[in-house]
Write a structure and sequence with these properties.
The structure holds two protein chains of two kinds. Chain A is an alpha/beta fold. Chain A is 24% helix and 28% strand. Chain A is elongated, with a radius of gyration of 22 Å. The two termini of chain B are 30 Å apart. Classes of the chains: A alpha/beta, B mainly alpha.
Chain lengths: 356, 110
């Protein structure tokens, strides 16, 4: 109990923070709802901007977790706070040798909590006009990563090599119609990365990225966009898709405005990739509710201060790291998790206030 | 034909499936720096011809890029080759040669 921490969420942020906290001699328990740690990163093939393997980053994080008590396949059902102590109730529906008691609730105690529940991918079916789940040749950026990972080649649902591929930016982001006003930040560079990867695999294919702005916000991103244009001849069409339709042969008709010429634009593609954005993880709302934590109107957790207290919350002893606070890249999530671990360790090492 | 006072409005849509990409492919081979244009419009903002006419060098190049060369054939003659566009281009596109290349493509392909 003394100096014990519970980290909720075993994605890259939770794994990194748990590892860092354990290295500082704290007793750390990491709770993950899935059977395996890794979160979204485990599904990704290569990362922007240098296209290094996602598995290398994951292996590094796992290596750092040797001293962490890992509990997977569990959900948090209740959290309460008594002064400087937290009681966390977990439930394990799946029998799991690692969980304390299968099919049973377990009560854990901790001096501090770190929330790293991350994000869910926007459900592309909600943009029905783009045809995901209706037209076979409309896939998401995550589906494309699955195909990259399996290394089975890129084919249409009819088994043909696509001659033209469209990539749609801002699906579920910057869109009041689906309730998400915010920018998901990393889709732009993911779209450029995936365009290059597609051109590497299928040099004869024409690739079209449909964007509103290209937000190349970090180091080497703009250069990746330049490479996509100069070396790979990727086409960038500025305009948001209005709708898609399917031809009898399975190809997809895309309609947009080409805002750079001010004309309606129509093109047929053989494969359409939707860059789905971030939405708050379903579990974030549940846990925020248990703790009485404030979320923004976007559903992500608000930290105590967006500049100087970005890993703290309004509740003493409750810290946050990673995409639980909003869209973030892998590199940023790792840096943020390390910062959160330091803030949390400082909190635990500070004398207990008399009024607490 | 009897004139009933009705006209048919031509579709404004850019249909890429019917676009004629021969012009752009030739332009690209004559001036490869065109690939890195990011459509910022600096060229058009500084253009001497663009100050007094509808001439828009950025948009003209984009229309060729989309396979719609017909609409800009007459436009390109408005350029006076002063070269200010080239001085301001942040991506280093060789604009004077690009305009020559576009004219050349129209000359060769009709």
């Amino acid at each position: 109990m003394e100096n014990s921490v519970i980290v909720i969420g075993g994605g890259i942020s939770g794994m990194t923070a748990a590892g860092m906290l354990a290295l500082q001699g704290l007793s750390v328990t990491l709770l993950e709802k899935e059977k395996e740690t890794g979160g979204h990163l485990a599904r990704w093939d290569r990362l922007f901007p240098d296209r290094r393997k996602a598995s290398e980053v994951l292996d590094f994080a796992r290596e750092g977790m040797k001293r962490v008590n890992l509990v997977t396949g569990v959900t948090v059902t209740d959290i309460s706070r008594q002064g400087r102590e937290f009681t966390v109730v977990i439930n394990s529906p799946i029998p799991n040798p690692q969980s304390p008691t299968p099919d049973h609730e377990t009560v854990l105690k901790a001096r501090a909590l770190l929330l790293a529940t991350g994000f869910d991918l926007f459900e592309a079916r909600k943009k029905e006009e783009y045809g995901y789940g209706i037209y076979n040749n409309v896939i998401t950026s995550a589906d494309l990563e699955d195909r990259f990972k399996l290394k089975k080649g890129i084919l249409t649902s009819e088994g043909k090599i696509p001659a033209r591929i469209g990539i749609v930016h801002c699906v579920g982001s910057r869109d009041e119609k689906v309730g998400n006003l915010y920018c998901s930040k990393v889709c732009c560079v993911t779209g450029v990365k995936q365009a290059i990867e597609l051109k590497e695999m299928l040099p004869a294919a024409e690739v079209f990225n449909f964007y509103m702005d290209l937000r190349m916000f970090d180091r080497h991103f703009e250069e990746l966009y330049y490479e996509a244009q100069q070396k790979w001849n990727v086409n960038f069409i500025r305009g948001r898709l209005s709708e898609c339709a399917e031809n009898p042969d399975g190809s997809i008709i895309v309609k947009t405005e080409d805002t750079l010429t001010g004309k309606p634009f129509k093109i047929t593609v053989d494969l359409l990739v939707l860059l789905t954005g971030f939405v708050p993880a379903g579990s974030t709302g549940d846990i925020a509710g248990m703790l009485g934590l404030v979320t923004g109107t976007d559903g992500f957790i608000n930290s105590a201060d967006s500049h100087i207290m970005n890993n703290s919350t309004d509740i003493p002893g409750v810290f946050v790291a990673g995409a639980v606070k909003g869209p973030i890249s892998i590199g940023e999530a790792i840096a943020d998790a390390r910062a959160a671990a330091i803030q949390l360790a400082i909190y635990l090492n500070s004398p207990t206030p008399a009024d607490d | 034909m009897i004139d009933f006072g009705y006209t048919i409005t031509k579709d404004r849509q850019l249909d890429y499936d019917r676009g004629d990409m021969r012009y752009y492919r030739l332009v690209q081979s004559l001036e490869p720096s065109v690939d890195v244009c990011m459509e910022c419009g600096s060229c058009t903002a500084t253009c001497s011809a663009g100050q007094f006419t509808e001439f828009n060098i950025r948009k003209a190049h984009t229309l060729i890029r989309r396979g719609n060369t017909e609409s800009i054939k007459a436009e390109l003659r408005k350029c006076m080759f002063c070269g200010k566009c080239q001085l301001v281009c942040p991506r280093g596109v060789n604009l004077r040669n690009l305009i020559l290349a576009m004219n050349r493509a129209i000359e060769l392909l009709g």
